[in-house]
Amino acid sequence: MVAGFDVLHGVAGLFVGFLVGLTGVGGGSLMTPILVLLFGVSPHTAVGTDLLFAALTKTVGTVAHGARATVEWKIVRRLALGSVPAAILTLLVLSQLGKPDTRAAAIMVTVLGVMLIVTAVATLFQKQLALFAKTHERLDDQASLVPTVGLGAAIGVAVTISSVGAGAIGVTALLMLYPALRVSRIVGSDIAHAVPLTLVAGFGHWLIGGVDFGLLANLLIGSVPGVLVGSLLSSRSPDHILRPCLAAVLLFSGYKLLS
């Protein structure tokens, strides 16, 4: 347990919170590897703490995006219909496995590393994939229901195990499923969906014993102002510079975890 306020943890929270508000990416994708690689936190504790960090940080982001009417609540409901039950089932499996030993921790690190590389690719080619979707036949509203629920289920499993997947992967898939929507509405909807998912997954990890609340408090002190500023600046972000840099950081983090 972290005693008192730790400036480095607060700065890490500020940095990640700002990116979450700005792009919808960075919650689990950056915070978990930062905790594991820079602060030496065990993967099990890093995932559980980061899930509650993401839930509280993205609640602030949702309020900011909601105030600007950039949340498509129908999409949020569809995603949650798949992700929340999937998260609960995954937590039940994890609870049966007991506290992770060295081998289980190594598997978690491998899953996290792979998810970071997939997220980096999704971040880098997000615009190209969105343009590809716009040039092809669009699904009607009813036809997009099942794929969206299925996407939510896949994200629910990935996020519960690794805390990664709700950001860039979710946004990229939603851009392809709903190409007519503005990117700001996709990002806002993705952030709003992450709130119930990470709350359920984080609460489950807390019951299993994988949350450090002292560490969590330090991260939140930095992240709350960061996500507010990022959300307010999201429509003016230099996308052509920000995305390649973010993808490079994610790729490097994934490589370091796998190596």
Describe this structure in words.
- This protein is mostly helical and 259 residues long.
- The chain has eleven helices and no strands.
- It has helices at residues 7-23, 27-38, 43-67, 73-97, 102-124, 126-134, 145-162, 168-177, 183-208, 213-233, 239-258.
Summed up, what is this model?
The chain is an all-alpha fold and 259 residues long. The protein has helices at residues 7-23, 27-38, 43-67, 73-97, 102-124, 126-134, 145-162, 168-177, 183-208, 213-233, 239-258.
Q: What brief labels describe this structure?
A:
about 260 residues; mainly alpha; 11 helices; about 80% helix; about 0% strand; globular
Topology:
Layout: H1 7-23, H2 27-38, H3 43-67, H4 73-97, H5 102-124, H6 126-134, H7 145-162, H8 168-177, H9 183-208, H10 213-233, H11 239-258
Helix pairs in contact: 1-2, 1-10, 2-3, 2-11, 3-9, 3-10, 4-7, 4-9, 5-11, 6-8, 7-8, 8-9
